[in-house]
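User: Predict structure, ligand magnesium ion.
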Amino acid sequence: MATQTAPHVYLQDIAAWDGKDVTLKGWLYNKRSSGKIRFVLLRDGTGVIQCVGSIKDIGEDGFAEIDAMSQESSLMVVGTVHADERAPGGFELILKQVTPVQAAMGEFPISPKEHGTAFLMDNRHLWLRSKRQVSIMRIRHCIVKAIRDFFDERGFTLFDPPIFTNAACEGTSTLFETDYFGEPAYLSQSGQLYGECGAMALGRIYTFGPTFRAEKSKTRRHLTEFWMIEPEVAYMDMWGAAELAEDMICFIVQRVLETRAEDLKVIERDSSILEKIRKPFPRISYTDAIEVLKQNGHEISWGDDIGGDEETTISNQYDRPVFLHHFPAHLKAFYMKRDPEDDKLALGFDILAPEGKGEVVGGGQREDSYDELVKRVMEHGLKVEDFSWYLDLRKFGSVPHAGYGLGLERTVAWLCGLPHVRETIPFPRMISRLKP
Ligand code: 4AD
Ligand code: MG
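Assistant: Predicted complex:
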């Protein structure tokens, strides 16, 4: 058989090549044979297509190549694209030539049969090739791009905070400590304090980066390494930040619905649930939420933290995200501004995602008085000298300002309808998971 040449095409663009010859480069996803025909399911990272080989087109040699290949062997094929309504994806490829690249060394561990979670997590590096994981990664990418577009289109500047830091932002109980040339350093729990410096320099910024928390509990919502997006705006109050978060979430959901419909189908996500996400989101104060929780049988009193189960009770009352606001100040971080009308309360809010997916956003207005902030730092048992640079923001042109943090993985879990955050990031880091 003469060597065939045809342009290399990615499966996501295959519709433009109906009736034409193309080269596909990928991996064997699955195969079967029936009499004088070989069927190869080929994946190339952007899609999967059924390739059909007949003896007259690819000969005994082509059959032998296919028969020798097992799942996840790499190969290149040349063939003619053929629209077929019955084919998954709408097209199949009539094979003209099969070129093996590497024959898989043994049986691929992840077969189409069911596997346990621990096994899949141990083989995460290979599990990522499965259709469902590919779709989740594409939706994650779409969410990242939507967030960046949202802020870029509104005049925000991306502002990268450091990852090695000298002090705690979100409490000392979840700090990862490391040795920094003989001094302790901490992996960043949040870029916020640096983001505030950026807001005073640039007016409106957002940070977008990895953050780290030594979360000692195993839950469906906690990673030890996760990505956070933290906008910070000078001359903004708490409700301004809340509206910004609301607009951002609606923007992200719309983008996912518009551009990732196919992937939502692959992961069997009911998109009608996402179509209901419109503003305004309901707003309920912490104090009212405690009453709702009591009515629903929770043993909780004013001043207690609202945990995962309580969050689910509250969010289950709505088909869209809900704001919880005005928490007791003692539950919140040192930097939160107190309510001028009630010193026990903080000007902060959380957004709880629907379907029991928990808190996706935490934010609020920052303490902008130098004297008050020094007092809070000390009340939280933190060292004033560690925050000298942060306190300087209140010395030189302090202004009201606010912002929030969106957890990327929890957002992916919610939009994809995943019960656990472990599938939302390529290589999740959790208390008992550092490999692969
Ligand atoms: O509520 P948090 O702790 O807020 C902050 O860090 C503020 N500095 C944000 C700000 O105002 N700039 O975290 C914000 C969000 C949470 O709502 C949650 O979505 C996510 O980050 N998050 C986690 N996601 C996965 N694993 C964890 N261990 C997380 N901890 C927080
Ligand atoms: Mg929070």
